[in-house]
Every structure is written in structure tokens, then in C-alpha cells.
Amino acid sequence: MEIDKLTAEVVRFMLFKSHKQPNVPVKREELAQLITENYKQRSLPGTVIANAQARLKSIFGLEMVEVHLSRQTKASKNAASQAPAGDVKVYVLKSLVPEELAKRFIETKDIAAPMGFAVVVVGVLQLAGDKVPEGTLWTQLKRMGIDEFDNSHPVFGNIKENIQTLVKQRYIRKEKVSSSEGDVWVLDLAERALDEIFKKEVHTFIQNLVNNAEN
Predict the structure, then answer these.
(1) What is the span of the domain harbouring residue 1?
(2) Which has the minimum average pLDDT: 18-27, 60-69, 138-147, 188-197?
(3) Is residue 117 located within the same domain as residue 68?
(4) Are 43 and 134 part of one and the same domain?
(5) Using one digit for the tens of pLDDT, what is the confidence trace for 6-24?
(6) What backbone phi and psi angles, to 5 degrees, belong to 168?
(7) Range in 7-16, 84-93, 187-196 with the lowest mean pLDDT
(8) How far apart are CA 173 and CA 209, in angstroms?
(9) Confidence (pLDDT) at 215
(10) Among 96, 116, 134, residue at a domain's last position
(11) How far apart are CA 171 and CA 168, in angstroms?
């Protein structure tokens, strides 16, 4: 059994996925399928993934973070709420370069703009109690000069596509809720919005909003 070869394959897979779809989580089951394609030992994925995490950290300065996503299913076709149905394990790559150095030497406009948009959206959700109807989010963003129908914003580009990207990256969740007035799309915070460094960025954004409102 070639543990080193399998480890290298997982490392390549994670780097490729991260390059193709930055910040979009990779499911553990995808990695398990890659690892067990020719080997059937049940404990093998855990060993190989742990080795890949160590290699990514030591060679590339990247932390392969495990995140538990809440999997939900509708209780019935007409249900207005959803019930938990277990967790799904996923992995994302996170740079270990200190924040200040990353801002000075690594982050480019292409990286900073999507992260800035994520901070704005999550900040709006937090100020609204972590969950809002989609229409309310658009109203608040429009007050900041961000229009849902703008597909060529000078900083953020296509606004609706950016919202969908945040859903894929698990910063926010989007679900359809039935009500007496019909179906409504509701947005709330997802797992990656709870990352400590990201929470710090959001806190700074909210504090700036409060300070500007007071001045």
C-alpha cells in the first residue's frame, strides 16, 4: 500500500480544487473515494487525510481545516422549517501566513474584493439578527451602493453571482421558507462565518458602520 502516493494525490486534489474554486469546501466523501478507489481499508482515509494535512502545513504553509456542515432536509413538502439530519465533514485550505503579512505581500485586488463583499454581507446579517429575508438584504446593500441587478460593479463585479459564491463557500445559507404570503428566500449565517479571523474582520466593519452613523 502506497501511503505516500495517496497522500500526494490528496494534496494535489486539494490544491487543484482550491485554485479552481477558491474557498469552496471539499467533501470528505470526495477524498475518501479518491483514497479507496483501489484500496478498501476503512481506516485508510483517516490516515491519508491526516498525512495530507501535515504535508500541506509543512510544505505549503496551508492549514487543511475540517468543518462540520449541518445537513438539513425538509420535514414535509409543505413544511416551513427544516430539521437537522446529521453533519457533513468538509475541508478548506487556510493560509498560515500572519494576517498583516498576507495583506502586505499576498492579497491582491482579486482576493481582497470577494472577501470584502463577504464581510459586508455577513455584517448585514449579523446586524439583522443573523437571519433575514433575501429582499431585506438587497435593501440594506442598496443603501451602500450595491444593487442586486448590477453585473459589473466596479469593485465586486456581478453581485448576484457573488451571493451564490458565498453560499457555496458556506459563509451564508439560503433556503426557501413557506409562509401565508407565499414562498420567501431567507438567508442566514453558515459555518465559515464563525471563523475567528473572519469574525474579527466583520466586527471591524460593523464598528465602522456604527461610528459613521454616530458622526
Answers:
(1) 1-96
(2) 188-197
(3) no
(4) no
(5) 999 999 999 998 888 877 8
(6) -65, -35
(7) 84-93
(8) 24
(9) 57
(10) 96
(11) 8
C-alpha cell at 27: 467533501
63 pLDDT more than 60: yes
Rg (CA), the chain: 20
**Secondary structure of the chain as H, E, C letters:** CCHHHHHHHHHHHHHHHHHHCCCCCEEHHHHHHHHCCCCCCCCHHHHHHHHHHHHHHHHHCEEEEEEEEEEEEECCCCCCCEEEEEEEEEEEEEECCCHHHHHHHHCCHHHHHHHHHHHHHHHHHHHCCCEEEHHHHHHHHHHCCCCCCCCCECCCECHHHHHHHHHHCCCEEEEEEEECCEEEEEEEECHHHHCHHHHHHHHHHHHHHHHHHHC
Give the span between the Cα atoms of 100 and 108, in whole angstroms: 13
Give tens-digit pLDDT for 38-51: 887 888 999 999 99
User: Does one domain contain both 121 and 147?
Assistant: yes
